[in-house]
Amino acid sequence: MDKGCIYYHPPPPDSQPIMSSPSPSPPDYQSIQEPQAAYNPFGYSTESTDQMNTFYDDSQSQYSSYASDYDQGGVDIPFYSTPAPVYLREPLNYHLYTPTLPSVFVTSSTDSHFVPPSSELRQTLQSRSLNLPEELQEYHTLAPLDTVNASERRKFGNWYSAVYMAIKSTDGRAYALRRVENFRLMHQSAFSAIEAWGHIQHPSIVRVHEAFTTRAFNDSSLVVVYAYHPDAQTLYDVYLKSTSSLPFQPSRSQSFQSLDQAVVTAQPIHQPQFTPIPERTIWSYIVQIASAIKKVHEAKLAVRMIDTTKILVTGKNRIRIGSCGIVDVLMHDSHQDMHLLQLEDLTMFGRLIFALCCNNASATTNGNFQKSLEVMSRLYSPEIKTLALFLISKNHPNKNINAVYEMIGTKIFTELDDALIATDKLENELLSELENARLVRLLCKFGFINERPEFARDPRWSETGDRYIIKLFRDYVFHQSDEHGNPVTNLSHVLSCLSKLDAGTDEKVMLVARDEQSCLVVSYKEIKACIDAAFSDLSRAGR
Ligand SMILES: Nc1ncnc2c1ncn2[C@@H]1O[C@H](COP(=O)(O)OP(=O)(O)OP(=O)(O)O)[C@@H](O)[C@H]1O
């Protein structure tokens, strides 16, 4: 610290829960806090409503980093008596904001196999590092997951959003953070939907973890935290990306008017050449989405975002609806009729089926509808078309998710059968892994015992007593040779010997000394006892 300078002495960082009103402050102090005053850093975790009171604006944590710079030794510092200069931590990476140099001015303008031309590389590195905070609430090591270039970004309603993977410091796990840029939260009650979503557990819904607002990105952002599914891709990326350029089709209901206004209306043409998604896969997607919607509607909520760009493919034919809860927070201020929103879910569901069947995100809009019907009739069974038409129909008296269930009943059974077969298959895979674990444990014990140079001050420990039997058995398993003296590398022999050893069978085996002057006939059970005894001796001494 420079002598003679008067520094702003910040209040203790965690003295002020987010909902408490700021304590009256002296005038200068107040002016220092001004930039934050309009910003209301609400936060909400689905883990517990009590946590609501424990969230802080990240911008405050910036202040906290200065706390150690100042003497807080109980001395009365007249920090409000002088208009003190405030040195806030600024993002100093100005160089990252400069435009990309034209390629003629950079040293390498040519592509290499791994590295793009300098100008492009620079842009890539910029976009990777720009404005990413080192820490965000309890999250660190942020890495962007967005796959689209800045120029192709789609809006999430009125706002741009970005997705990051980050590690939570309290549990060390990875999470997906969706950040809505430049969003000002006006009422904390907007987070009540996140609490409700936190209770929704469904195999086809990406779990909502918590939400908070932050200034760590140098704006006021909303962040909703979701379960992270490694290697997930959106349905759009998997099926539509190569054939369409503007896929986002949000709801057209009254309640979504403001979101709609932001939508760019594009007219992707039906691509005559695309590989249709197999009907079995389409039905699988339908059953999964229907089941997710049913769960949500039964919880008196609406999904509000059923779109190819927001549904994740997380495994073979496995999908999960992502981004749940965000629209509820974004649209909190406009009155929503839940029944209408649920009907709108079904309409979006119908549009999704059309989009997937016709390989066109705008299959039901922009004058594409008739063509889409033709494509659908040509490629898929009438049941899919009937269902999709029912879903997008307006004013159908019986339009609800239970009616959908009745229409897809037989497909649900097929799905259930396949899911049970999949479980059996996975159980088998797991069983073989269990075998591996048993064998690896045995091999580790061999490794500890065989050829041990010395134990209990006996350099011949591993060659004598019970250990001699272990050594001969090791030779029997691994070091056999055929009549020509060539090594026998028969893995089945090894696996069957080790399995019998692990089980400790009564079967006997003849172990021959290397000089072939002596042999021993012992059972697997006895060899197992020798190994257990030798290993216990070692581990006892180790302890
Ligand atoms: N919960 C999650 N777990 C793992 N990856 C996710 C998760 N949510 C989103 N992603 C990935 O993050 C990337 C960006 O998602 P996003 O929804 O922003 O798609 P996008 O195509 O970039 O659309 P937009 O232009 O709307 O931002 C996608 O590749 C998606 O697979």
Features:
ATP-binding; binds adenosine-5'-triphosphate; alpha+beta; three-stranded antiparallel β-sheet; coiled coil; 3 domains; Pan3_CK; Transferase(Phosphotransferase), domain 1; poly(A) binding; eight-stranded antiparallel β-sheet; cytoplasm
Tell me what you see in this structure.
This protein has 543 residues and is of the alpha+beta class. The chain has 3 domains: 13-40 and 50-90, no CATH class; 97-101 and 120-407, Transferase(Phosphotransferase), domain 1, CATH 1.10.510; 422-542, Helix Hairpins (Orthogonal Bundle). Helix content is 39%, strand content 12%. The protein has 16 helices and 13 strands. Strands 1, 2, 3, 4, 5, 6, 7 and 8 form an 8-stranded antiparallel beta sheet that branches. Strands 9-10-11 form a 3-stranded antiparallel beta sheet. Helix 7 packs antiparallel against helix 9. The relative contact order is 0.07. The model is unreliable at 1-42, 48-98 and 245-270 (pLDDT under 50). The structure holds adenosine-5'-triphosphate (ATP). Adenosine-5'-triphosphate binds at residues 145-148, 153-154, 156, 161, 163, 176, 206, 226-229, 232-234, 237, 309-310, 312, 322.
